[in-house]
Amino acid sequence: MSIEVEERKLDPAVALPALDESAPREPHRQFALKHEDCFVVADSYGDIRGTGDGLFRDDTRVLSRFRLFVGDHMPSLLGASLSQDNILFTANLTNLSTIGSDGSEALPGVVHIERTRFIWQDRMFERIAFSNYSRREVLLPVRFDFDADFRDMFEVRGTTRSRRGRAHDALVGETSVTFRYEGLDNVSRQSVIAFSIRPDQVHPNHAEFLIRVERRARRALYLEVGQNEEVPSSDRFRAAAARARFAMRSKRRQGATIFSSGRVFNDWLTRTRADIALLTTDLETGPYPYAGIPWFSTAFGRDGVISALQMLWLNPALARGVLAFLARYQSTETSIFDDAEPGKIMHETRKGEMAVLRELPFGRYYGGVDTTPLYVYLGCSYADRTGDQGFVDRMWDSLCAAIGWMEEVGARNEDGFVTYSRAADTGLFNQGWKDSADAIFHADGTIPKGPIALVEVQGYVFAAYQGMAALAAKRGDAAKAAHWSAMAEKIRSAVETRFWMPERNFYALAIDGEGKQCAVRASNAAHLLYVGLPSAERAQSIAEQLLSAHLHSGWGVRTLADDELPFNPMSYHNGSIWPHDTAICAAGLARYQQRTSVVKLLSSMFEAAVQFNMRLPELFCGFTRAIGDAPIAYPVACLPQAWSAGSAFMMLQACLGIRIDGWKREINVERPRLPIGIDNIVIRHLAVGEAKVDLNFQRVGDRVVCYLGERHEGLVPLAVRS
Asked: Where is the Putative glycogen debranching enzyme N-terminal domain (predicted)?
């Protein structure tokens, strides 16, 4: 085999000093690629160092170390980036000059090294191109270090196992190395690293090459990492890359698209749309947005539902896929280990060895108290957005089973609250979206006794009952409609009575098993605005406090007010900023006509996204914004994260005041506002029933006008109220 050679005219370059390898890496400068159930996380160099990064397949790390060295040194980093469609990762590097034993320069630092990588069909493809900018031929000593530890995702996250399966000795071939592992689940897992040329030396954990590059020339080495051995080549690389880009292009074109007058704002929307497409996996039941990379690259109930709600106005097909998947795996039995009860909707599913062996309950786990009411709410919202009566009819039994579970749990207390208390010690201690062990507490910091009624969960329950009442009425079932309407009002009244803190003009975080309020001000209360539960007067008080300095950091809404005792801006849930949480706050403010506040929150999130290279992470620290400062990254946040990406579109909908009535086949726009610095926005191919229209928003003086574009398929009434 021979290395591909390309002759090019190049300009001289200057060698850069080596980066301190021991320095900590910035988490938001790691780069993730994904296709279906396979993903890779590496640093800016393209290296996998074996901490939390790696190549993962079905919740197992199949490549735990993969590093490039030139002349026994790390190359110097020039820059790294992802393509706009999230398919290609590129690292631009250069070699360090080396000095021979006689004191002369043995290897000049004039070689540009370009690593280009992508994932396609459970396989990592990579091209390393060496461009020689010197006036003489160079001989590059190149070494790859590699290993595969086949650790389960939960082991990578820190869980200790009492025993593991058998790791076989690596098989060394002429152009490949094969790692094998026999799991305790009797599944054989294999990872093959193959090169396009024969290494000069190949060992179980590294391969060495002497790569000759003519002056002013470019040479490329190809490699692949997969379950079986293939022969890497330029043709295979290009063909697979083309298929990957075509598949991603199809995903990104689903639903309506948005264009604005702001170039940087457009860059943000483009990146976030690409992130959602990257995380969306095509399952048998339809598209499903996996939660986030690296820790949560799987189907989560809560995350999938909220991501679908964020994108519902633009792409209802995502909600349909989420609903179909969750309905298929709705619980039909009681299991203490799985926290399952009939009618309950799944919280999380995993495919790794530990899940299969039931060392942990997360193979198919139901310990999420909010997932079931959110699922019902999404089903009702999808029906209102699309008017898809046929799908609603097919989902009806599942929706009724979910409501049945909610009513059964609610009957265990006089208020009808849906509460949680984990069934087994292996399950999650807290089961709302703030599910870390210290996320729910009393004002003095003590942990409350269960069962726990979370404030936002009661809001979701209220919305689910309301939605089902409306659907039952459309189906001609007046008795069920009246019953669920009464249940909604019962919950509303109980929340207003039991959760309200009159001395603080705010809703309590939770009510514990002894009926005591967890009397702290947290962002959870804002979720009540999202579903429209509070009175206008109380909503005004919540809105004012959300935008106060105690809760709003300048970058977004904190999960906890900074004057509460357990506040910690560096914590996971007790003072950090979660973009999806801020987006739900914004949508709630919009429901109560607080458009100016919505614009403020959207601007804060956009400015944070710019600082994070157009990608909002799962969360970031809740420090108060200061002039000239950037938001502080959270060390192990997922990036990308589906509901963080989707938050941009939820906030934009709140800003524009768009509501689509699928039953009437009409668009309603109420008091639209445009983001700061944006003079016009066009939404193209917005589906309303069978019709597709372009919707235009234009700033005219101090007003924003909305009108249908000239291009449309079918007639759609547009009602605008300024």
From this structure: 33-223
**Residue for token pair 């080495």:** 221
611 CB burial (10 A radius; 0-12, 13-18, 19+): middle
Q: What is the mean pLDDT of the chain?
A: 92
Please report, for residues 528, 570, 680, the alpha-carbon distance to residue 495 in angstroms, rounded to integers and kept in the order given.
10, 31, 40
Count CB-CB contacts under 10 A for residue 471.
Answer: 23
Pair type for strands 666-670 and 658-661: antiparallel
Helices (H), 430-477: 455-474
Residue from 355, 306, 349 nearest 328 by CA:
349
Confidence tier at 100 by pLDDT (50, 70, 90):
low
Under 8 Å between Cβ of 625 and 603? no
Q: What pLDDT digit, counting tens, does each position of 548-580 carry?
A: 999 999 999 999 999 999 999 999 999 999 999
Q: Which of 502, 520, 387 is nearest to 442 (CA)?
A: 520
Give the DSSP H or E segment for 583.
Answer: helix 579-591
Confidence of residue 110 (pLDDT cuts 50, 70, 90): confident
Q: Give residue for tokens 């890496």.
A: 25
How many CA atoms are closer than 13 Å to the CA of 275, on its beta-carbon side? 31
Other CB atoms within a 10 A radius of the CB of residue 633 amount to 18
The upper half-sphere exposure of residue 277, i.e. CA atoms within 13 Å in the direction of its Cβ, equals 23
Residues 6+ apart with CB under 8 A from 627: none
Question: Phi/psi at 41 (nearest 5 deg)?
Answer: -125, 125
Inter-residue contact 85 to 274 (CB < 8 Å): yes
- How many other β-carbons are positioned within 10 Å of the β-carbon of residue 165? 18
**Mean per-residue pLDDT, 401-427:** 95
DSSP state letters, 652-680: HHHHHTEEEETTTTEEEEES----TT--E
Proportion of the chain in helix, strand, coil states, percent, rounded to 5: 30, 30, 40
